[in-house]
Specification:
Elements (H helix, E strand, L loop, with lengths): L6 H20 L7 H15 L3 H28 L2 H7 L4 H4 L4 H22 L2 H16 L6 H21 L6 H17 L2 H4 L2 H6 L5 H5 L1 H24 L6 H23 L3 H25 L2
Main location: membrane
Protein name: UbiA family prenyltransferase
Membrane topology: Multi-pass membrane protein
Length: 298
């Protein structure tokens, strides 16, 4: 007896397979994109005082936008970094064989078409196009091979990400811009913490990163200093304007403590595993900061 698969079942299976594969591509970057950006969408929702049904639809729409946002990045990034990933990140789909190179290229074409169309539908086309231009510069025009280009890409990406998150809901306010600019500067200066964990693979493919250009020790001292003064900047620009409420103070202390912990870690705890953990803490700090925007930007 032969079992036949109906067309709807085949479509559902294919869709589920694509969703699962996209998650494998983006899962390592969820704390720098989907989670924090959706928090900023929530901050805009609270600021705009949307009704519960409107808020739910807007948050779901925003989460899908940022899924496509990071999917474009990871597809492009992993397509140009297969050999490096064999050393640094052997779990990625193109290394494990869960996706072929040809399949990833086809998916990238599809996402590069769908993402701006969806951005246009949400009213944030300019930010979607900005992100696509940055992605092309990073992955196909050499920015990703130079430490300055890598940091500028990360910082400018924060603008494309958070401006879109707010404008999915409403017009960007001066207070929202204050958050966007502060986090853009912070990420631009400190994102080289991600390069500490990848020194071996970056050296193998002759990529120019801060640790390889300026030396690992100098880079760690620079990052240590940045994380040490970070709490003062975050307090002044992000927390203090919201007023002396206990929950603001508690968040301020928590963010400051994480920043000081990172200041110590980048100098004293070295090696791929420790540096990977430090980078994960940076991602979680970023998400926590944007979660705080929900009640500081009301």
């Amino acid at each position: 007896m032969t079992t036949t698969t109906t067309a709807p079942t085949t479509v559902l299976q294919t869709a589920w397979r694509e969703i699962r594969l996209s998650w494998l591509f983006i899962s390592a970057d969820r704390w720098t994109t989907i989670f924090p950006a959706t928090c900023f969408v929530m901050a805009a929702v609270v600021h705009a005082r949307l009704s519960a049904p409107e808020a739910a639809i807007t948050l779901a729409s925003g989460a899908l936008y940022f899924w496509l946002f990071v999917y474009e990045h990871t597809l492009a990034n992993q397509l140009v970094g297969v050999e490096e990933d064999r050393v640094n990140k052997p779990f990625r789909p193109l290394v494990t064989g869960q996706s072929s190179i040809r399949g990833a290229k086809l998916r990238l074409i599809a996402v590069r078409i769908l993402f701006p169309l969806y951005g246009y539908w949400l009213g944030v086309l300019e930010w979607a196009l900005m992100w696509q231009i940055l992605s092309l510069l990073q992955h196909e025009y050499g920015w990703g091979r130079h430490w300055l280009g890598r940091n500028v890409y990360a910082g400018a990406g924060v603008i494309a990400q958070l401006a879109a998150a707010w404008e999915i809901v409403t017009t960007i306010t001066p207070d929202a811009w204050r958050w966007i600019v502060t986090l853009t500067v912070t990420v631009t200066l400190l994102m080289s913490v991600q390069d500490l964990r990848d020194i071996t693979g970056d050296r193998a493919v002759h990529r120019s990163t801060m640790p390889l250009v300026f030396g690992e020790t100098r880079t760690r001292i620079f990052l240590c200093t940045g994380f040490a003064i970070g709490p003062a900047a975050i307090h002044h620009f992000l927390m203090a304007p919201a007023g002396p409420h206990w929950w603001i103070i508690a968040t301020d202390v928590l963010l400051g403590s994480l920043s000081l912990l990172l200041s110590v870690r980048v100098v004293l705890l070295r090696g791929q595993k420790h540096d990977q953990r430090s980078y994960r803490l940076v991602e979680q700090w970023y998400t926590l900061a944007l979660a705080a925007s929900v009640y500081t930007l009301r």
